[in-house]
Design brief:
2-enoyl-CoA Hydratase, Chain A, domain 1; 2 domains; 3-stranded mixed beta sheet; two-stranded parallel sheet; 9 strands; 45% helix
């Protein structure tokens, strides 16, 4: 599968898709100069992850930028000026709300897919720079940052400081915040290479187990330990019957590696 592309790759103008290794899909953002999300771009972004969710050949997704100097500048400011045409303010507001929901759903697509992706493990290069910049253009970030970050980061005070001030911060501070878990020495190429190596290792594990890990962590974040355990028991009622379990045990006894079957087509869990 190495060096091939998925059959739906040609559908996307602002995304480059490739399989650098078996079952690892590399998705690169490609809207120069800074990958700003205009309407066509974010619609493509949501659509590609909807395709990935049901692609049995994809076990791990690495998300990076094809633009050397930026991952993404966030929303395209021109799109912020788009207002639905209607004379009635309430109806105009409802149309705008629906538009925002569409944008939110697209940007949050990686969290919905069963495969691990950039929303699950976040790494940065030493020269990376970040900001929560919406406050500087008269907005509170409403597409995902301030909905997800409070549940994910370790330092609420620092998150507040960064969101209120809009100041730029570096990779080390992003790690202190809990936004990233590792700072990779070097620049874009080094962090992408490291991410692809991690992804290749994850892709060799049982996809039944990996999907379960993602779902357990996401569910537990939003529920009590008791609810989480009940959810995990229900999941385990079928997942513990997988042949991957017995085959793993047999391979461990023989001290051999094992190749696992892909999940079935459209296994959107």
């Amino acid at each position: 599968m190495s060096s091939t592309v998925p059959p739906y790759a040609s559908q996307f103008q602002h995304l480059t898709l490739s399989f650098p290794s078996d079952n690892v899909l590399h998705v690169e953002l490609k809207r120069p100069p800074v990958n700003a999300f205009n309407i066509p771009f974010w619609r493509e972004y949501g659509a590609v992850f909807d395709q990935i969710a049901v692609d049995a050949n994809v076990r791990v997704v690495v998300l990076s930028s094809a633009v050397q100097k930026a991952f993404s500048a966030g929303v395209d400011l021109i799109d912020l000026q788009v207002t639905p045409e209607h004379t009635d303010i309430a109806r105009r507001g409802l149309l705008m709300r629906a538009h925002i929901h569409d944008f939110q759903r697209a940007i949050n697509a990686p969290a919905r897919i069963p495969q691990p992706s950039a929303v699950d493990v976040r790494w940065a290069a030493t020269d990376a720079a970040f900001s929560i910049k919406e406050v500087d253009v008269g907005l509170a970030a409403d597409i995902g940052t301030l909905a997800r970050a409070p549940k994910l980061v370790a330092n609420a005070s620092l998150l507040n400081e960064l969101a209120f001030s809009g100041r730029t911060f570096g990779a080390d501070e992003a790690k202190v915040l809990g936004l990233v878990s590792r700072v990779v020495p070097g620049s874009r190429d080094e962090v992408v290479r490291a991410a692809l190596e991690l992804a290749a290792g994850i892709a060799q594990k049982s996809p039944v187990a990996v999907v379960g890990v993602k779902r357990f962590i996401a569910h537990a974040r939003e529920h009590s330990p008791e609810d989480a355990l009940d959810y995990q028991a229900t999941w385990g009622a079928f997942a513990l019957q997988t042949k991957d379990l017995s085959e793993s045990a047999a391979a461990a006894k023989r001290k051999q590696k094992i190749s696992y079957d892909n999940l079935g087509k459209s296994a959107k869990l």
